[in-house]
Amino acid sequence: MTTLPDAELRNFIRGGLPPPWLLWHAPGEDAMLALGATALSTPDDVADWRDWLSALTPVDGDVPLCFAVMFDPGGPADAPWIGVPRVFAFQPRRVLRLPLHVLTGRAADERAGAQSAAPVTSDGAARYIHAVEHAVSELRDGGLKKIVLARREQWREQLSLSMLLPRLAGQEQSFVIALQPDAEHLFVSLTPERLARVRDGVLHTMAVAGTTPRHADALRDAAARQALLADDKEREEHDHVLHMLMDSLRALGCTLDIEERDVLSLTHVHHLITRVHGRMPGQRRLVDVVAALHPTPAVAGVPREDAMRRIRELEGFDRGLFAGVVGWMNARGDGDAAVTIRSTCIEHDRITAWAGAGIVRDSIPAREEEETRLKLHTVLDVLRR
């Protein structure tokens, strides 16, 4: 890893270094800042993205290869994703590792004054509830078993990188991911969900699905945690994700150790979480796991292809990198990848944010809409500070 001179770090914070670049921070670890590449690498045919991803190999053994896969690589593109490759990778020229608070502290010294923010468009509660009602009807007819439906919010705001970076500090339970593939788009995700991590052949992944609101009162909050663990609807949603993970990983030849179901407590919500560990066969690498798992039932549904087809029809917009995958891999095949939920795309003076909820046959549309609003607050709390 190389260091970055203070002058160049200040230039990055001010938005003066050209893309592509990736800021990657996993909970409890130092941040990785991967800067500079001649171009993005993309598959010749996006339909073959899984084969292309599995064949990726870092050019420089000492520098990780960064990659990104949109939620629906083969789906139609619309704003704000026009011009962004559906799947891409790049080998950075320089990599800096430092505590996140060091980077965000430097940025705080550079930031400019905030601009006013005003809502511009919204997919709104009524539209989301209508989509969920359609989905629940289909689920009760027995075709789908689960589908994840998202909503989006858009508004106008001038938000520079120097303004954004200080706001990313203090995210203890979530990944902090900022990715700029080109000069027009800055993607940010504050996701709690790791898709896969591989170190020396040891795999770590997790099933994160099933949600309930948090409460300011400690006793009510503790009761909500216990109720979530016992809730049949939330457990069903969670188990769809867990079983798919287990089946896919065993098909790759992984031996697995499944922890007991637990609760992950975030700022606005509790999630059900089951952590999964295992050992990979010698020929397998992180990108093989990503190709096998993405998109999981936590962001798509069951059966996967049927759910994705209905998502296109019911949502009516391109998720892009929301609910996609961003990660990195080194020459040994080790690396880390996250499912990019709780995310936003910033382009000039327009900001788009997304959140979704898993729908099963017993879902109540108004409660699912409330869940998406709580999840949106994870992003809005940072962007509109």
Number of helices: 10
* Helix-and-strand structural type: alpha+beta
Q: Classify the beta-strand content into a percent band.
A: 25-35%
Oligomer: single chain
| Proportion in helices | 25-40%
Mean pLDDT: 91
Radius of gyration: 20 Å
Number of strands: 19
Poorly predicted regions: 112-116
Verbal overview:
By secondary structure, this protein is an alpha+beta fold. It contains ten helices and 19 strands. The protein has helices at about 5-15, 50-55, 100-110, 125-140, 160-165, 220-230, 230-250, 285-295, 305-315, 365-385; strands at about 20-25, 30-35, 65-70, 85-90, 95-100, 120, 145-155, 175-180, 185-190, 195-200, 200-215, 255-260, 260-265, 270-280, 300, 325-330, 335-340, 345, 350-360. Strands 1, 2, 5, 6, 7, 8, 9, 15, 18 and 19 form a ten-stranded antiparallel sheet that branches. Strands 3, 4, 10, 11, 12, 13, 14, 16 and 17 form a nine-stranded antiparallel sheet that branches. Strand 13 and strand 14 form a beta hairpin. The longest helix is centred in the middle third of the chain and has 20 residues, at about 230-250. The chain is globular, with a radius of gyration of 20 Å. It starts with 5 loop residues before the first helix and ends with a helix. Mean pLDDT is about 90; it is low at about 110-115.
